[in-house]
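Comment thread on ticket #2218

A.B. wrote:
> Attaching the input chain for the structure job we discussed in standup.
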Amino acid sequence: MINEYIYLFFLILSRYIGMMLLTPVFSSQVILYQMKILIALTLTVFTFPLVSGIYPASYPANNLVVIVEIISEVSIGLFMGLAVFLVFSAIQLGGQIIDMRMGFRIANVVDPFSGVDSPVVGQLKNIFVTLIFLALNGHLYLVRHLYESFEIIPPGRVNFSSQLWQYFFRRSADMFLLAVKIALPIAGAIFFIDIILAFLARSVPQMNLFVIGLPVKIMAGLILLYVLMPVLNNYYSEIIMNVINEIPALFRLIAPG
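C.D. wrote:
> Ran it. Output below, let me know if you need it in another format.
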């Protein structure tokens, strides 16, 4: 009986560890690995009485099944984190498109959350969406959804249906569409500035457009970023809450039939 309860405890812990591996904010390199493990253990301690009261603990006869079930539990947290991560990636990709149009693409800064290089505007948007995510208590909603996921998916009873992969294929395609929507107002305005500069180049060949055009596009991009920031922040809040509200439906795609 003790071994069965220990096994159930590790199944619950594996699901929370999966959340820590890929979910925005929780997977940040700023948070120490020891702290992530401590958070996962704390959540497991609070969740264990609920799960053990609903589902009877049973240890598989085959050790291979143990490994498969633990990996399956980790994947539940990973899938939840991936759904939110795709939204963050789309917003950062939109910022990179804007960087390319403004001429900031060669100027990279280190993202403190992922530890990789990111263009300036892409990094700015990533910081904004992270702050919005925290302001909306998105991290707490995700913890609550994962806590409630044990009522939908019993421990060790994960079902990887074809609808799950269709969901992520669709979300991956929507990521590029979302990035274009975010970048279109500013990138489109800079495109029109390029057209005007092209006409000026034909009209006044003596004008050095490289010296004039680059500062003009940077100034126009920064002004538009400032003007559109309230609208974009409301849009970011909407898409973040939409993906958070989709998490229970995602868990139902993994639930046993």
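A.B. wrote:
> Thanks. Noting for the ticket: The radius of gyration is 23 Å.
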